[in-house]
Amino acid sequence: MSDVILKVEHISKQYRLGLVGTGTLSHDLKRWLYKIRGKDDPYLKVGDTNDRSKTAESDYVWAIKDINFEVKRGEVLGIIGKNGAGKSTLLKILSRVTSPTTGQIKTKGRIASLLEVGTGFHPELTGKENIYLNGAILGMTKTEIKAKEQEIVEFSGCQRYIDTPVKRYSSGMRVRLAFAVAAFLEPDILVVDEVLAVGDAEFQKKAVGKMQDISRGDGRTVLFVSHNMAAVKSLCTRAIVLEHGKVAYNGSTQDAVSFYLSDGNREIIDNLLERKDRKGIGDFLFKGISILNEANEKHLNLLSGELYRFRIEFSTKKTIIDAKIRARFIDSKGQIRFLLNNYFIDTVTLNLEKTDKGIVEYTIEKLPLPNGNYTIQLTCFSENGLEDDLENTVDFNLIGGDFFNSGREQFSKEGVLVEHKFKVLK
Known about the structure:
Elements: E1 4-16, H1 25-36, E2 48-49, E3 60-72, E4 76-81, H2 87-94, E5 102-107, E6 111-114, H3 127-137, H4 142-156, H5 171-184, E7 189-193, H6 201-217, E8 221-225, H7 229-235, E9 238-243, E10 246-251, H8 253-262, E11 284-293, E12 301-304, E13 308-316, E14 324-331, E15 336-341, H9 342-345, E16 355-364, E17 372-382, E18 385-401
Parallel strand pairs: 2-3, 4-8, 4-9, 6-7, 7-8, 12-18
Antiparallel strand pairs: 1-3, 1-5, 9-10, 11-13, 13-16, 14-15, 14-17, 17-18
């Protein structure tokens, strides 16, 4: 028997822009006439690619287009991509919330979905009543649900309010209870969309642990959508990257995250020689800067705690004696978070010969910056004084990361992250 529990074949979803529904009455009639005559839908041949940044040139858009992949029993498949890439549309089709325009899905077993906060909950019913309602929707008997009821309530942490109507719950309480229902009612496939974006740190730790138990311990399958790359890397066994409604990458989690973070910025070095706002003598000139990860791939979207190399290109008109090359890391508020300087760490004086293609490189083993937007200011001093100084040489984003290897993303946006230890003495 094959281990493949979910197979997606040529799934596409088309929407008509600006209107509710698939189109006008005339369009629906035309579709029907083509269908009874055995011809293809005439509107499948039209439609723009799902690129939200461009002006529409057609009344139709392909939210997702020709998606193909397989998921084996026990796998945790990560689905990542920018907002509007088609992730939620794909999950809604897999969960049978909506039907695909073309293609088919083959599954073995039942699917439980957590697509939004409180998905499937009736606001007028109590938390306990919604547990039974969701279980019935999943096809479980009352006896099966009752056997799991106490575990669900304890995991959710909503014991005090379990007999209170859900409409009075906070968004965090709703997602806690909804996740507990979906996870504990033993679906063969659990579909989770950005559940970790709502809950607090305690709940996120419990949710990740539970999804690991589901896949590794129980051998069930999880489809996980998140912008939290630390959670994706720690939880998923494989990942796909969606771009403009199409699968741009399908492979290992590490490579998929790297592909997503690269964001097409594979030629990052700008010609800094064209900058007119530089200061200094001018015998040393910065030419460009690029940021490379451990695999020597260029990135502008980075993760805390990862290794990065900051490669700086320069040219010199003559020999530069006692060169000090400084890189300041500055946040979006203009505050200097930290700096790099060869003068601090090198016991040998740096002298640079005349060249058009000089390169130096700083390596940070564990990038200590928290989430946010940053820029780098480059400065070079020599025995003659200030040689070159350029602000805003490269802008980059910190979009998550697991600096402490705890399986959790660091949320602080202040200061820098430092290695430390903690223990209770009494």
